[in-house]
Write the structure tokens for this entry.
Amino acid sequence: MSSGRPKDGDMRMVVAPDKGSSLALPPKPPSASGSTALVEYTPPVVVEEDEDLEIKLRRILENVPVRVSNTSGSSAGSGSGDFHQYRQMRRKEQDRLARMDVDYQRRKELAEFTLRREERLKAAEERTAKKRLKRQKKKQRKREKKSKVGASGEDNKKEESSDEEDSEDDEEAAK
């Protein structure tokens, strides 16, 4: 077994490398600052998304209250005020959970309401479009009927054409 010390016969001569050539480290890239550091410091590149995240994180940290729980000391046993502290912390936590539930229910109801409202508006728009089409068809049939009756007299045609122009102008104004 070896004691870690070289014996007399184990000595070897080793040639030390020249100071000009370094075998242990890779060559350093040329730097303008003349620094002898192995790793050069480069400032971090700031991306807008990172800034937005930092701003959001800062806003959260400023607005969210810091919770300091009233923890017991390191001595064994409970003091006379520990039960009251426990009840207070429990009540605050129950209130917080209740507020979260109320907020969740309110958001859920609002989302359901907007969904139902959009469906009702869509259905109402479809009914309106259907009735509009029906009115236009009825108006068109009335015009055709008038044009058949008015074919016998030239005067009726002139009046009818001016009425059609007026009604067409009214339709364009309504759109």
Summary: Helices lie at 48-63, 82-149, 154-174. Residues 49 and 55 are 10 Å apart (CA to CA). The mean pLDDT is 76. The chain is about 60% helix and 0% strand.
